[in-house]
Specification:
Jelly Rolls; single chain; mainly beta; eight-stranded antiparallel beta sheet; 0% helix
Length: 118
């Protein structure tokens, strides 16, 4: 068993092509912790920052930790807040990020073998 103290986990600023700006990522569970089945990280988006439409080839789960955000697929957008859970099926084109007036943090969980395209 491994206990991961979230408050002590390393947080880094990330600027990647999938994001419309700089976000913060805190990796919690990955291959470094010995997991072959899961990857879990916290992403914190500043107001107005989101990721671009993208697709994962594995399912993804988002647990909203704080703030107000938007999750969207090709059918529409939905505002999400603390405590909401979003299940994104493999192959579904989607995006998620902060509203224009709020910071937004979510925990994401998916397979470390997941490939993302956008």
């Amino acid at each position: 068993m491994i206990v991961i103290e979230g408050k002590k986990a390393k947080t880094e600023k990330v600027s990647a092509p999938i994001f419309t700006g700089v976000v913060e990522r805190t990796d919690l569970i990955d291959q470094a912790t010995g997991s072959r089945e899961y990857r879990a990280s916290i992403i914190t988006f500043p107001p107005g920052i989101k990721n671009k439409f993208h697709i994962h080839d594995h399912e993804q789960i988002l647990y909203i930790i704080s703030g107000k955000g938007v999750v969207a697929d090709e059918k529409g957008e939905k505002v999400v807040t603390e405590g909401d859970i979003v299940f994104i099926p493999a192959g579904e084109k989607h995006w998620h990020g902060a509203t224009k007036d709020s910071w937004f943090s979510h925990l994401f969980i998916y397979s470390p073998e997941t490939k993302t395209t956008f």
